[in-house]
Amino acid sequence: MQSQPLSATEFEAIEETLLKYGDDYTILNTCELDGFFTALASSPEQVDIAQWFPAIWGGQLPNWESPEDLKNVIELCTRHYNVLALQLAEDPAAFAPRFEASEHQGQTVTLAEEWCFGYLRAIAIAHWPALPAIQAALLQTIVDLAEQDTFELPEDLDVAAHQQQVADVAPAARALHDYWLSQRVSTGSCAFPHAHRPDL
User: Fold this and answer.
1) Does the N-terminal or the C-terminal CB of the chain have fewer CB atoms within 10 Å?
2) Is 23 inside any structural domain?
3) Where are the bilayer-spanning segments (predicted)?
């Protein structure tokens, strides 16, 4: 299993491929993809790449211009998935969601909305069952941000409150991973899901 973190250049290569083959129904940036993989790596049961890879593209694979495009994006995606799975399971302090940044009325604001939307995409394809109240509240932290509009922040945005919401996302994601990990361990399942390169 490859677990070498991606370089900035490799993230750029993924983003270029997402934009090249994407549309309104696909994941279009690495922030959303990072959230998507975080939820997959945290899920109660492993989701096969034959399910999650097409989901990146809105459920239907693109018409690849070359086999190399497909090969490269699969390799980079599976590597990033595996890095996140390993971090969450064995070194949660190293886990840091890949958020965006924007300027808002002269301030730099960290945005987690795209990441959270990606997280919810993965929950949908992984079919998470209902959560206990504590974990449901943690998930609501992510849901609330996913429902906000990142294209135009309101002029009256409470920046401090918004940034606190963003700061709560990583601890919520770690706690949700730990909850499902405890469930997997108690049933004797794999300690953490990870991706394999498939024949798609």
Assistant:
1) C
2) yes
3) none
